[in-house]
Amino acid sequence: MIQLDNVTKRYPGGQEALSGLTLSVDKGEMLFVTGHSGAGKSTLLRLIALIERPTSGQVIVDGQNTRRVKRRKIPAYRRQIGMVFQDHKLLYDRPVSDNVALPLVIAGVGHREAGRRVRAALDQVGLLHKEKQRPETLSAGEQQRVGIARAIVTRPKLLIADEPTGNLDPDLSLEVMRIFRRFNEVGVTLLIASHDLSLIDRMGCPRIALEDGRLISEQEDDPSWQ
To answer: Is the dihedral of CA 62, 66, 70, 74 positive or negative?
Structure first.
């Protein structure tokens, strides 16, 4: 599903966020990316989402080389990817249902079909009963679940999440990860950046560790997750 071949990302001024990174993520895998702040986790996700392009090397996602995706084709490329952020990035002047529907509106999905998909996505994260509420009335955990519903409403093949539990307490963090696990069990590939090693240990999934933009370790999964 994802292949990085000798990828380097260098920003103006010479800072290298990633340096010669080679990585493979299989279809249907749930992989965690760990590392300290500044290790390159977010940059890795931004390259996969085509928010940025590599300075050198290749990023291939579901057979597409991101260096060859033309600017006008980027929206279509991103429709195969669901993205979850630590700060939710919700529209607080719109109800929950409108927030979740946004990717469908952009994609031109009809009103009736969009409504059906929004309700299904909210039901999957346990928030169907709050579809008419504004995000500011929800708890932090509920807001994150709205963000997850918005990410999966397009039925993506790949879901990437950047510190999705960074602002949540341990119980809510585990709840969010269990939602991710359910998506993975139906075939969605997940790549999750997180510094919460104790939570990752509980999930029992494979992980990689980055340091100063380089891959320093890999660990296989443990089927005894809780």
So the answer is: positive
